[in-house]
Design a protein that fits this description.
The complex is a heterodimer of chains A (752) and B (154). By secondary structure, chain A is of the alpha+beta class. Chain A has 18 helices and 31 strands. Chain A has 3 domains: 5-202, Aldehyde Oxidoreductase, domain 4; 215-302 and 355-444, Aldehyde oxidase/xanthine dehydrogenase, molybdopterin binding domain (Aldehyde Oxidoreductase, domain 4, 2-Layer Sandwich), CATH 3.30.365; 311-339 and 448-736, Aldehyde oxidase/xanthine dehydrogenase, molybdopterin binding domain (Aldehyde Oxidoreductase, domain 4, 2-Layer Sandwich), CATH 3.30.365. Chain B is α+β, with helices and mostly antiparallel strands and 154 residues long. A 5-stranded mixed β-sheet of chain B has the order 2-1-5-3-4, sandwiched between helices. In chain B, helix 3 crosses helix 6 (136-153). The chains are: A alpha+beta (752), B alpha+beta (154).
């Protein structure tokens, strides 16, 4: 393996940081290969692949690396199909390009577990095209038939005579040839870099030596720093502003009032715009200290009475109301239920959640008259272009959005509000500015995963099998912030019925009614978005139906499912967890099944719970069929990551509201799982069905809450239908040691 | 003027003495490996070594560093000379988004210096940093791997 010196992220060479990458892979930000010191020109064969005459192969990573492994697996697919030598490729973060747009959404973004499932085939075809061009050029140069040529280790090899030459020898000629329309794509049996073995992640060495550049680490010449505060009241305004001796504070540069600090691409009726104030200084800490001098008196505005209790009542009242949008109807569920003698109804609620990425929102901007350059940890480079273009009237092509590493994304960084703030301030002070949110700002001005309520009613036949399901779901919009469409007007947000509109089960009679309530709180996508809460409701409910007639939840599900893939992962997870075997004393299991992002997952949680509600989770077994697990280690890490995410929201994290604003402000009251709480055994099995590749990053969290609550039911006979479980006094053993005195542990489960 | 030893070299900074060490390291001294996560010593992303102990530098005024020895992730090791804990982190492929990892590595190094063969319980008691990606199971594996490698070295 070679070690190569690189400019870690550098487009114009003015980022200060340089670093060394190990493993022979160069990681570059937006380094233009034509700037390379050796002077050899990189020939683009397409938007993803450039090769220099001295055989440097550059692969463009067009999706954000936010922990999910995109920076490793995406270029590995390209290298695999191209026949490039993986150990010497150069990786470069892409800017915006029509070729990088998601084929389904016609828009460039990273999220929705799209990176692999939407781009695998595109990348293969792209790389195959480049490979065929290189072979064609070699055939011409050598005067041989292209049929005997193969591409391997960044060389073209003539199998007939053993002649071999680097790609670079043919790249100039290849660049002039007509690209083949339907190049032959390698069969799975020919894949060498993906589809079975796990590659060392390319980002890992820099991430353990502190060299990896996240948005917050961007350094430019003459950079100023900004701290920001946004009105904390939903719909509130700034009444009085007292500067005190702010302007005398060390390093102070400017105070910038930002009329709309939470902009989105289009404002629906009732959108709550929030005013913000940024203080700019020579250093970030100076900006923070100066901001502290500022005394702001807010007018709380029309939503001053909003709190979590009144909000929950609104959901309950809405459920009792009659205003529903019919989302899906098959057969006649209402009639079947009305005429049935055996019915069951249950109502579920999943709480509001913050993304709480470990790297708080931040962005760096340089605003120059008709040109804006951005450096940001973003999932939405094109979103940033669209928003900034609209807000500042700068043409989209004059807005360059450089993407750094993301210290977590989870959907939050799809939006560009935080990028806009940096650009706005840079425009005012006419210098490059890095604007960093405090954790408190980040948590109180998140675009939250909204609280959602689901009410399910089923009728059962004499054998205890469901004959009809009537589901009602209540949620504010989820996609409005990202798309600008007014889904309340349209009746249905495409994101929020996910997981309940299309289920793994067949109900002869099915009715889904939705009600999109309009709230003054900003909401958006959040890892496992619609699926998480809806699958919690559905999979808990299926378990309730099984229990009602004393049926084993797994065979009960198998009777209801419609295709083989769900059945085979249920069998796999049952086998691996010992579902049908005698359990250890005091151990109980719960199961959940999901079909999401084109991936099937089944999970079994084994736990013990004592009479006080103290929980010990022993093992979480997950069986996943994502078609093909391209990189098994990355896929496994992704599922395990999802389990932590799912457990956190099921057990402890919650955003609440009081007096018209968010209560939680940092990790002391927005509780995410700690290392000590994550001590269960994990077993993750990939069932290779060879089917179309599904998403992996969002599938892990989804089954966790229902499997957990179903296991608690198995242990205690009690159903918990509202999350997080801390509301019911259920805590991990570790968390129970740190409860405030007022939350004295009380006996909850008499039978245990 | 505040002087301290940073990664083996004497440094001198002019920051306000109450400035958190984190921001002095990041902005005045240009070492960006130490991360800002919460500003309240809750998450540990900013963990550095101060002599024999760890401190959460976001809540540690730089004046208390006067005359002391500070080690950051950059001083621990680099790609050519990885610290044994960093090497274990690579072996176990711990990071995902990676933002919190320098803090975890720094905390793990101190744990292993005090306790070269920690039990699961010891790790749970000593490592209280937060990771939103959920890399905890691999962090624990990597600490055990590092402990094994330390033992093999001695």
């Amino acid at each position: 393996m070679k070690n190569i010196t690189v400019n870690n992220i550098s487009r114009r060479g003015f980022l200060k940081t340089t670093g060394l990458a190990t493993g022979g892979l160069l990681l570059q930000g937006c380094f233009l290969s034509s700037d390379k010191k050796d002077g050899s020109k990189a020939i683009p064969l397409n938007a993803y692949i450039r090769i220099t005459e001295d055989n440097f192969v550059t692969l463009i990573v067009h999706q954000a690396e936010m922990g999910q492994g995109a920076q490793t697996t995406l270029p590995a697919i390209l290298a695999d199909e191209l026949g490039a030598d993986w150990s010497s490729v150069i990786l470069e973060n892409g800017l915006t390009d029509p070729a990088f747009q998601n084929p389904k959404f016609k828009f460039q973004f990273t999220g929705n577990a799209e990176s692999i499932r939407s781009f695998h085939d595109i990348l293969r075809k792209t790389a195959a095209t480049a490979r065929e061009l290189l072979k064609e050029a070699a055939a011409e140069a050598w005067g041989v038939d292209v049929g005997s040529l193969v591409a391997k280790d960044s060389h073209i090899l003539d199998q007939k005579n053993g002649k071999k030459a680097p790609f670079g020898d043919f790249v100039v000629r290849a660049g002039t040839l007509q690209a083949p329309e339907n190049p032959k794509i390698k069969a799975r049996s020919e894949w060498t870099l993906v589809g079975g073995k796990s590659l060392p992640r390319v980002d890992v060495p820099d991430k353990v030596t502190g060299k990896a550049i996240f948005g917050i680490d961007v350094a430019l010449e003459g950079l100023l720093h900004a701290a920001v505060t946004i009105c904390p009241y939903f719909g509130g305004t700034i009444k009085e502003l007292h500067e005190n001796d702010l302007r005398n504070m060390p390093g102070f540069i400017d105070l910038v009032r930002i009329p709309v600090a939470n902009p989105i691409v289009a404002y629906p009726p009732g959108f709550t715009k929030q005013e913000g104030i940024a203080v700019v200084a020579e250093s970030y800490w100076q900006a923070r200290m100066a901001l502290k001098k500022l005394q702001i008196v807010y007018e709380p505005g029309p939503n001053a009475a909003l709190d979590s209790e009144s909000l929950y009542s609104l959901y309950e009242d809405t459920l009792q109301g009659s205003e529903w949008h019919e989302s899906l109807k098959e057969g006649d569920a209402q009639k079947t239920i009305h005429t049935s003698n055996d019915r069951h109804t249950a109502t579920y609620y999943s709480a509001w959640q913050s993304h709480a990425t470990m790297e708080p929102m931040n962005a760096t901007a340089e605003f120059k008259e008709d040109r804006i350059e951005i450096w940001a940890p973003t999932q939405g480079q094109e979103m940033a272009q669209i928003l900034l273009s609209k807000e500042f009237g700068v043409p989209q092509e004059n807005i360059i959005v450089n993407r750094t590493y993301l210290g977590g994304g989870f959907g939050r960084r799809l939006l560009a509000d935080y990028i806009y703030l940096a650009a706005y301030v840079s425009k005012q002070v006419k210098r490059p500015v890095k604007l960093i949110w405090s954790r408190e700002e980040d948590m109180q001005h998140d675009y939250y995963r909204p609280g959602t309520m689901q009410s399910l009613t089923a009728s059962l036949d004499t054998k205890g099998m469901p004959t009809a399901l009537h589901a009602k779901a209540i949620s504010p919009t989820i996609l409005q912030a990202a798309t600008g469409a007014d889904y309340v007007f349209e009746g249905e947000d495409p994101s929020f019925p996910e997981g309940i509109k299309e289920t793994p089960y067949r109900f002869e009679n099915f009715l889904l009614d939705v009600n999109m309530i309009r709230l003054p709180i900003q909401t958006s996508v959040w890892r496992s978005t619609g699926f998480g809460p809806n699958v919690f409701a559905l999979e808990s409910f299926i378990d309730e139906l099984a229990a009602k007639n004393g049926k084993d939840p797994i065979p009960f599900r198998k009777e209801l499912i419609t295709e083989e893939r769900s059945a085979s992962i249920l069998d796999a997870v049952a086998e691996a967890s010992g579902w049908y075997k005698p359990k250890k004393e005091g151990h109980y299991m719960g199961v959940a099944l999901t079909h999401s992002f084109e991936t099937f997952a089944a999970q079994i949680i084994e736990l013990s719970i004592d009479g006080y509600g103290i929980l010990d989770i022993h093992k979480i077994t997950t069986a996943v069929d994502c078609g093909i697990a391209l990189d098994p280690a990355i896929c496994r890490a992704s599922i395990e990551s999802g389990i932590t995410w799912g457990l956190t929201q099921a057990l402890s994290s919650e955003i609440t509201f009081k007096n018209g604003r968010t209560v939680e402000s940092n990790f002391h009251d927005f509780k995410i799982l700690t290392p000590a709480e994550f001590k269960m055994e994990l077993e993750t099995i990939f069932v290779d069905s060879g089917a179309k590749i599904g998403g992996i990053a969002e599938s892990g969290p989804i089954p966790v809450a229902p499997a957990l609550c179903n296991a608690i039911f198995a242990a205690t006979g009690k159903r918990f239908r509202t999350l997080p479980l801390k509301k019911h006094g259920i805590y991990t053993r570790y968390a129970s040691n740190y409860l405030p005195k007022k939350e004295k542990l009380t006996k909850k489960f008499a039978a245990l | 003027m505040i002087q301290f030893n940073l990664n083996g070299k004497e440094v001198e900074v002019k920051d306000d003495p109450n400035t958190p060490l984190l921001w002095v390291l990041r902005d005045s001294l240009g070492l960006k490996g130490t991360k800002f996560g919460c500003g309240k010593a809750l998450c540990g992303a900013c963990t550095v070594h101060l002599a024999d102990t760890t401190v959460r530098s976001c809540s540690f005024p730089v004046r208390y560093a006067e005359g002391k020895s500070i080690t950051t992730i950059e001083g621990l090791g680099d790609a050519e000379r990885l610290h044994i804990v960093q090497a274990a982190w690579i072996e176990e492929q711990v990071p995902q988004c990676g933002y919190c990892q320098p803090g975890f590595v720094m905390a793990a190094v101190k744990l292993l210096e005090r306790n070269p063969d920690p039990t699961e319980e010891d790790i749970n008691n000593a490592i209280t940093n937060l990771c939103r990606c959920g890399t905890y199971s691999r962090i624990k594996k990597a600490i055990h791997t590092a402990a094994r490698n330390i033992k093999a070295q001695n």
